[in-house]
Amino acid sequence: MLEVVNLTKRYGGLTAVNDVSAQFRKGHISAIIGPNGAGKTTFFNLIAGAVAPTQGRILLNGEDITGMRADQVAVRGVARTFQSTHLFDSATVMDNLIVGHRLRTRSGLWDVILGSARLRTEETLCRRKAEESLEFVGLSHIADRLAGDISQEERKRVAVALALATDPQLLLLDEPAGGINPEETVSLARLIRKLAEHGKTVCLIEHKMDMIMSLADHIVVLNYGAKIADGPPDKVRANPLVIEAYLGADYAQA
Ligand SMILES: Nc1ncnc2c1ncn2[C@@H]1O[C@H](COP(=O)(O)OP(=O)(O)OP(=O)(O)O)[C@@H](O)[C@H]1O
């Protein structure tokens, strides 16, 4: 469903992403791994339309989306989460979701001023969507809690719920399990699997190798911006280039 071809991003003399080609299949979970500074976040920024590539093409369901703006890419079914989840801590979880979903809908200033029918319909729709996505991520029971009072793992789940606002086909998750404990990591992995089971294509950046190896169908390894391996977890963890650049011999034998 997503294909990148010879994707390159240069910042002056530095090549953050270097001639990367890869395919991401519908309903699969793919992981982008690699050392710090390997180009993983830049890769996400390119797909999401946050930065334009220097070279190469990005195809989403066969449509060339290269160089489109982030909002144009989002409308076509791509959503993302970020390493840290920014929420309004003094508002409830539900209000955060309603606001998040609201920002992703169409009413303009005039609709708000005139209290248009479209605005009212959208408000109802936003609340319903917010409730649905909260239920999907397993957080209905904390809808009325203040966002500032919820755990780090719950924040990670809220981030996924926010990303679901646009009914995305492809979710780009940047370190979804960053900063949470091993038990919570297992439970978050279950949520990611559930996304795929519901037909979503998932692409994640993650440093937690145990999680990735048991969760991902497909792994792309970046090093200094270039792809050094691409394949199923077993094949990738046994690849000498990956062991040398990232995993280390201890992990490969574990
Ligand atoms: N806007 C920018 N301007 C200049 N250089 C940049 C910019 N964004 C990223 N870079 C550089 O591109 C390279 C890749 O960075 P990127 O953040 O994509 O790596 P990463 O694999 O996501 O790293 P990490 O795991 O630390 O998040 C780095 O050397 C970084 O300094």
From TrEMBL:
Q: Which UniProt keywords are present, listed alphabetically?
A: ATP-binding, Cell membrane, Membrane, Nucleotide-binding, Transport
Please give one Pfam family short name.
BCA_ABC_TP_C
- Which cellular components does GO assign to this protein? plasma membrane
CDD domains according to UniProt: ABC_Mj1267_LivG_branched (cd03219)
Gene3D superfamilies in UniProt: P-loop containing nucleotide triphosphate hydrolases
Q: Where is the ABC transporter domain?
A: 2-249
Q: Which GO BP terms, alphabetically?
A: D-alanine transmembrane transport; L-alanine transport; L-isoleucine import across plasma membrane; L-valine import across plasma membrane
A GO molecular-function annotation: ATP hydrolysis activity
Q: Which PANTHER family match?
A: AMINO ACID ABC TRANSPORTER ATP-BINDING PROTEIN, CONSERVED COMPONENT OF ABC TRANSPORTER FOR NATURAL AMINO ACIDS-RELATED
The name this protein carries in UniProt is ABC transporter ATP-binding protein
Q: Which organism is it from?
A: Verticiella sediminum
